[in-house]
């Protein structure tokens, strides 16, 4: 027994007790005749005191040899503290130490173990085990644990069964790239790591499991973008005998439960918005609706006024930035430069100041009079003091650009409040998405998503128009969950594969087992998957998922702490019947 | 909404209600003027009724076109059943159907969806989604879910934090073979899938997480033995500032909680036995203590009596098989043949009948008189009517052989009762184990296990004698958990690596990050890991883990349902910079 108590629990009620504590030295203050050590563990900090009157000389001397992060065990008496610290639970007491044992030494850590550390991202990742000692990281991991527990509790109470699906499965070239695993026992063959347990959860529905969930690691070998991880965690769910409405209600229930239990927030029913509406109003299928700045389509009021840039554009669209009229010309120019960066890719920006006196001043006054600009203000909902920002061009591109601007301005204006939660269902997604490079359509969600009733025929004539029984749950501008009602009919599934460019042979080779399963009484079913990393980070009021992962990888997919991936020795390659190089 | 109720919940209190049900057709009985359908879902079976008086002709005709496992939805009225079935919760009622919709057809399943099916293992694995519809498999998966939930609940309540550790880590040639994952972004390099999160959980302790747990998949590329899976699930746990006693108490608490919540059993404190004692008394480090037949060492009483086989043996040891005297000579010969099979490998067996009249009759009467045999009976605890079975030879081998016999006899005698649970801690394991082939020592648990205090010096002189702070939890003759107090000192860890044959360079390359971590204030720590598959199957009263895994692999590591592993296409290999063949 290394301790009678943790460093977070002693208070005035323990005064007079003999206690044993263990932990790390957070800080030492030495005034010569008296010394204090802040002793830290996961649960808190307890102040230890040593002084000339009450502590042996040897012990007081010993404290002078100790460095930060040394692991010690102490015995002593809980006494009342002279100058109390109201900010911590143990602030009323301190422990007068009678015995101190060094359990382990510590080198000077490469960065300070403080809430605000002096360590940069790289060094903290290399010494992640030290980074985890810091409260912000430690608290994030504990927060994640709480969210996971609540998810499991809620779903289990609702009759969902946690079923573990396999990690060593089969590679499917469709979709993102798989990580593969060579099989030694089956020479020349490979397993793949799952991008999601999609087919297995559908088979569980065919198997009558009725309600399934799993918190499960998934893997995607993508070229990493910032804040993407090659391995990530999904809350994966599926239900049989359900329609879209059943799924939305069930998982709105889960999300409300989390908001309540984790954040203490009683959420209203979640609004719903079609994909088309979201694109029109926010230029984005995962709009942040915590604030306005909705899109105003200006084609009618801004075209055919001799301004050729607008006249030739498919879409002219603007937002009213609240209080934006205070921007100087220089600041507006900088904003335009921001929009022109390759990450956003706008060609330029037209703006219109809404003066306090009700007049307007635009960057295109040559073409538009006060009345014209008044209509712009009307359409974008601009008030006096706002700045109307207008982009034009190809619909898809210009929406993405203006959405980026909208989010950027909200960020700058402090409208994206970490403690405000605005969930939203986005529904009626298109079934297919055009790949502009290849000219082929591919599944917007995945090939198992069912089209809306009666729209199957459109697949031949106007595939881009077919809507799917697919939905996303959006929270604060992030997609935290997405799913669909699945196809459960073999013929429809075969049709889908055909439209996605599979030959019947390819479909059979890759998904034959699923199509076979559909022949033996597959029930109607559907589901959803939440990105746990994202969900946790948003609930935690942050947007960087890496801060909520114990041992994340960097943007090259490397774990810099353990230095993986690494070379294999020749013997291992030989056993796997593999050779490097092509 | 496909249903107002499930097929498992309607009873007399619902009589008169209009309900909608969905499910699979389990059975149809057609008497011409009346037909019944048993409708099945995860929750139970509800009887549907159709008859000439109350059902439309079309509907009655429709039922005649339906086959087993067809998915249907019905509407109807709950009515009282004429002949009630007390065996099922819905046995008091039936549903008089007014509308029936076929939701999906089914081909005739390749085996019957019944508790006792006509399908063999192979066909059931290929159509595992149909096998899961059967109650025994479905109930096992739901049982597993319950165990997992209780594990998480208990540990979380005890302050353990569920932390997800990475799956893409680094290969370590030590121990079993790793599954590896080629990295496309880091050319020529590989990740490995974890055999366990061992180093990460230790780093979490260095990181101050204090108490960690995770239910996590682990991977071992071993030549599969019966009932081994290449991927398996561990309940993985670690604690800081603990001694062995703390760990044993904590996880005895967990196991008691499971026995109580899952099986309704209030277990006494678990007995503890040293490894040496277990080997002496049961010839086995995971003894089944639900029954006796303890080993009696006969060297003293059976050697130096002119029987050379015994005289030259390192160990002469016997067990008393209760009631075994009823065996015929032929049966005993068959038992001897069983022992001589290569799986057991005994050279032969000496036996001694304990007659009801108190006399003895042995197969070596030439060498032993009644008094001698009376001593055998005394040492083995044999009573009148028993059969003493005696083996001799090399200690290690003969113990294993006699243990196999003991388990076999217990099985035959029905002493291994599925509803009786006898947990046992086995402690004080040897630190090292001699590899007879290479003559080298390797770690019995793993290289991070700490030696007992004061035994470090023995490593140089008598490595086989060094005892470890290592323990196993044994349940009914199966190791369900094992762990140790870890080394937390860099120097001791370096010494261990040296004794395990690592050069300092190899140790640094593979475990440098851990040894580095030990320099920055590593606390004393230890942990345990339970094999969830095994634990669940034993709690479920069975011993085949495959029956408790949703989608298991066969003995060649293949998933015969999805047909994995499989060939990769050339493009994928090329992207990974890999070539097949050596």
UniProtKB/TrEMBL annotation, chains A, B:
<keyword id="KW-0963">Cytoplasm</keyword>
<feature type="binding site">
    <location>
        <begin position="220"/>
        <end position="222"/>
    </location>
    <ligand>
        <name>ATP</name>
    </ligand>
</feature>
<feature type="binding site">
    <location>
        <position position="174"/>
    </location>
    <ligand>
        <name>L-aspartate</name>
    </ligand>
</feature>
<dbReference type="InterPro" id="IPR002312">
    <property type="entry name" value="Asp/Asn-tRNA-synth_IIb"/>
</dbReference>
<feature type="domain" description="Aminoacyl-transfer RNA synthetases class-II family profile">
    <location>
        <begin position="151"/>
        <end position="552"/>
    </location>
</feature>
<dbReference type="InterPro" id="IPR004524">
    <property type="entry name" value="Asp-tRNA-ligase_1"/>
</dbReference>
<dbReference type="Pfam" id="PF01336">
    <property type="entry name" value="tRNA_anti-codon"/>
</dbReference>
<feature type="binding site">
    <location>
        <position position="479"/>
    </location>
    <ligand>
        <name>ATP</name>
    </ligand>
</feature>
<dbReference type="InterPro" id="IPR004115">
    <property type="entry name" value="GAD-like_sf"/>
</dbReference>
<dbReference type="Pfam" id="PF00152">
    <property type="entry name" value="tRNA-synt_2"/>
</dbReference>
<comment type="similarity">
    <text>Belongs to the class-II aminoacyl-tRNA synthetase family. Type 1 subfamily.</text>
</comment>
<keyword id="KW-0648">Protein biosynthesis</keyword>
<keyword id="KW-0547">Nucleotide-binding</keyword>
<dbReference type="InterPro" id="IPR045864">
    <property type="entry name" value="aa-tRNA-synth_II/BPL/LPL"/>
</dbReference>
<dbReference type="InterPro" id="IPR012340">
    <property type="entry name" value="NA-bd_OB-fold"/>
</dbReference>
<feature type="binding site">
    <location>
        <position position="220"/>
    </location>
    <ligand>
        <name>L-aspartate</name>
    </ligand>
</feature>
<dbReference type="InterPro" id="IPR029351">
    <property type="entry name" value="GAD_dom"/>
</dbReference>
<dbReference type="GO" id="GO:0004815">
    <property type="term" value="F:aspartate-tRNA ligase activity"/>
</dbReference>
<dbReference type="InterPro" id="IPR047089">
    <property type="entry name" value="Asp-tRNA-ligase_1_N"/>
</dbReference>
<feature type="binding site">
    <location>
        <position position="445"/>
    </location>
    <ligand>
        <name>L-aspartate</name>
    </ligand>
</feature>
<dbReference type="InterPro" id="IPR047090">
    <property type="entry name" value="AspRS_core"/>
</dbReference>
<protein>
    <recommendedName>
        <fullName>Aspartate--tRNA ligase</fullName>
        <ecNumber>6.1.1.12</ecNumber>
    </recommendedName>
</protein>
<comment type="function">
    <text>Catalyzes the attachment of L-aspartate to tRNA(Asp) in a two-step reaction: L-aspartate is first activated by ATP to form Asp-AMP and then transferred to the acceptor end of tRNA(Asp).</text>
</comment>
<keyword id="KW-0436">Ligase</keyword>
<dbReference type="Pfam" id="PF02938">
    <property type="entry name" value="GAD"/>
</dbReference>
<dbReference type="InterPro" id="IPR004365">
    <property type="entry name" value="NA-bd_OB_tRNA"/>
</dbReference>
<feature type="binding site">
    <location>
        <begin position="531"/>
        <end position="534"/>
    </location>
    <ligand>
        <name>ATP</name>
    </ligand>
</feature>
<feature type="binding site">
    <location>
        <position position="229"/>
    </location>
    <ligand>
        <name>ATP</name>
    </ligand>
</feature>
<dbReference type="InterPro" id="IPR004364">
    <property type="entry name" value="Aa-tRNA-synt_II"/>
</dbReference>
<dbReference type="InterPro" id="IPR006195">
    <property type="entry name" value="aa-tRNA-synth_II"/>
</dbReference>
<comment type="subunit">
    <text>Homodimer.</text>
</comment>
<keyword id="KW-0067">ATP-binding</keyword>
<feature type="region of interest" description="Aspartate">
    <location>
        <begin position="198"/>
        <end position="201"/>
    </location>
</feature>
<feature type="binding site">
    <location>
        <position position="486"/>
    </location>
    <ligand>
        <name>L-aspartate</name>
    </ligand>
</feature>
<keyword id="KW-0030">Aminoacyl-tRNA synthetase</keyword>
């Amino acid at each position: 027994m290394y301790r009678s108590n943790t460093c977070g629990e002693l208070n005035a009620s323990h005064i007079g007790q003999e206690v044993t504590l263990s932990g790390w030295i957070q800080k030492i203050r030495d005034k010569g005749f008296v010394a204090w050590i802040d002793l830290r563990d996961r649960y808190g900090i307890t102040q230890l005191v040593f002084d000339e009157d009450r502590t042996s000389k040897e012990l007081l001397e010993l404290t002078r040899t100790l460095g930060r992060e040394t692991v010690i065990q102490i015995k002593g008496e809980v006494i009342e503290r002279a100058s109390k610290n109201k900010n911590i639970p143990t602030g009323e007491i301190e422990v007068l130490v009678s015995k101190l044992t060094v359990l382990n030494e510590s080198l000077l850590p490469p960065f300070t173990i403080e809430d605000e550390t002096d360590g940069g991202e790289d060094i903290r990742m290399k010494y992640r085990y030290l980074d985890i000692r810091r409260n912000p990281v430690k608290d994030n991991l504990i927060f994640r644990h709480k969210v996971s527990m609540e998810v499991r509790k809620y779903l289990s109470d609702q009759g969902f069964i946690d079923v573990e699906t396999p990690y060593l499965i089969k590679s499917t070239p469709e979709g993102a790239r798989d990580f593969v695993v060579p099989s030694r026992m089956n020479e020349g063959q490979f397993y793949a790591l799952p991008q999601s347990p999609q087919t297995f959860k559908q088979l569980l529905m065919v198997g009558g499991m009725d309600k399934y969930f799993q918190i499960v690691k998934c893997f995607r070998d993508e070229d990493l973008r910032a804040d993407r991880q090659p391995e990530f965690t999904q809350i994966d769910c599926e239900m049989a005998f359900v329609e879209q409405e059943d799924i939305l209600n069930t998982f709105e229930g889960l999300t409300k439960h989390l908001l309540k239990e984790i954040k203490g927030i009683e959420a209203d029913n979640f609004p719903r918005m079609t994909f088309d509406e979201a694109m029109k109003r926010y230029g984005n299928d995962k709009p942040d609706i915590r604030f306005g700045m909705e899109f105003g389509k200006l084609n009618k009021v801004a075209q055919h006024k001799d301004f050729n840039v607008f006249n030739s554009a498919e879409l002219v669209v603007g937002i009213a930035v609240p209080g934006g009229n205070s921007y100087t010309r220089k600041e507006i120019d900088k904003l335009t430069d921001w929009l022109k960066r390759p990450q956003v890719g706008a060609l330029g920006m037209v703006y219109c100041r809404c003066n306090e006196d009700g007049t307007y001043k635009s960057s295109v006054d040559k073409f538009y009079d006060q009345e014209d600009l008044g209509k712009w203000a009307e359409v974008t909902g601009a008030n006096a003091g706002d700045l109307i920002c207008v982009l034009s061009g190809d619909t898809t591109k210009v929406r993405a650009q203006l959405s980026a601007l909208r989010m950027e301005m909200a960020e700058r204006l402090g409208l994206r409040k970490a403690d405000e939660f605005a969930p939203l269902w986005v529904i009626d997604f298109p079934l297919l998405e055009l790949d502009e490079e290849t000219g082929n359509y591919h599944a917007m969600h995945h090939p198992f998503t069912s089209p809306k009733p009666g729209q199957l025929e459109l697949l031949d004539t106007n595939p881009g128009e077919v809507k799917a029984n697919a939905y996303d749950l959006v929270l604060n501008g992030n997609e935290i969950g997405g799913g669909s009602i699945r196809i459960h009919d073999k013929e429809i599934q075969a049709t889908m594969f055909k439209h996605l460019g599979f030959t019947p042979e390819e479909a059979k080779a890759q998904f034959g087992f699923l199509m076979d399963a559909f022949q033996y009484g597959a029930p109607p079913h559907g589901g959803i998957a939440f990105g746990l990393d994202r969900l946790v980070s948003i609930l935690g009021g942050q947007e960087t998922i890496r801060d909520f992962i114990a041992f994340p990888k960097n943007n090259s997919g490397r774990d810099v702490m353990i230095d993986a991936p690494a070379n294999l020795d020749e013997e291992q390659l030989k056993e796997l019947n593999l050779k490097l190089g092509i």
